[in-house]
Amino acid sequence: MATVRVDQKHRALVRSVPSSYKQALARFFATGPTDVALAKVQHQAYIDALRDAGVEVHCLDADDNHPDCMFVEDQAVVVDGHMLLPTPGAPSRVAEQPPIAEFLMSALEGIQTCNMGGDARMDGGDIIRLGNLFFVGRSSRTNDLGIASLRSLLDFFDYELRIIDIPPHALHLTSICSTPTDELILIPEGYLDAEAFGTLPDGCEVIWMPTEEAYGCNTIGLPNQTVLIAEGYPTVKATLEQRGLKTIELDMSEIRAADGSLTCCSIFY
Ligand code: CIR
Asked: For the chain, which end, N or C, has fewer CB atoms within 10 Å of the first or last residue's CB respectively?
């Protein structure tokens, strides 16, 4: 997931597309999925691309009672052998979490786990990591108490956390941004201030993309200079390739239809 350094991305958890997927929440990139069969084909292509890139993928069964269950990124934050189980910001998505937590606790034997309490809310999709520097979106899904909970975890490692205010026309931080390598942040014009990320460590860079390629700014950087990107975002593709990265394009149309991006569909652990 977004919180794992590129060189740590060897194992991913994903979850199948439920037959109820047409009822998934959708407000930002589109008005909702229309073709569940196509979503399943696209999701399988996503899994295949991860596997082809050398990632070991475990796929949990879908839960038809939860139309958004394939968007696992929001349900757990794994950082260097520790796991934060956030209370998701959308009430309809809270009960997606137990099987995900159970799988990760058994796969990562001895993992230190903490839950969120009280009114704290957070979606894992509001977090990106640039090496030892983390950014969290304060969004319609992630509040200050949720951010405080994340900060407690990151303080344990002495990792810095910076807050980014997500504008109302975006769902999450990862909806508009990603770190295709541990030195690059991709972000579209028209969402955040130029200074939003603050001063970055030496060698790191924010790359601004055209507003119309906002969805394409969500990428998955993998080991071996490989980056999964959504099909149809030529500036994103060319920009990454100019930097010597190998891009693998995936048709994400039915996943985008429910505001889901590449990173949303996996947790790297
Ligand atoms: C939702 O609105 O919660 C889902 N339809 C999409 C979640 C996308 N997740 C993500 O960006 N991490």
From this structure: C
The CATH number given to whatever domain includes residue 231 is: 3.75.10.10
Phi, psi (rounded to 5 degrees) for 221: -80, 130
Number of domains making up the chain: 1
pTM of this prediction exceeds 0.90: yes
Residue 245 lies in a domain: yes
pLDDT digits (tens, 9 = 90+) for 51-108: 999 999 999 999 999 999 999 999 999 999 899 999 999 999 999 999 999 999 999 9
Could you tell me the two tokens for 91?
A: 């009430």
CB atoms inside a 10 Å sphere around CB 38: 16
Q: Is the CB of 96 under 6 A from ligand 1?
A: no
Pocket probe for ligand 1: among 77, 171, 262, the residue whose CB has the most ligand atoms within 8 Å is: 171
Q: Which domain holds residue 176?
A: 6-268
**Which stretches does DSSP call E strand in the chain?**
11-15, 56-60, 77-79, 82-85, 112-115, 127-130, 133-138, 160-165, 184-188, 205-209, 220-222, 226-230, 246-250, 267-268
DSSP at 135: E
Residue 8 dihedral angles phi and psi, to the nearest 5°: -100, 5
CA distance 258 to 211: 19
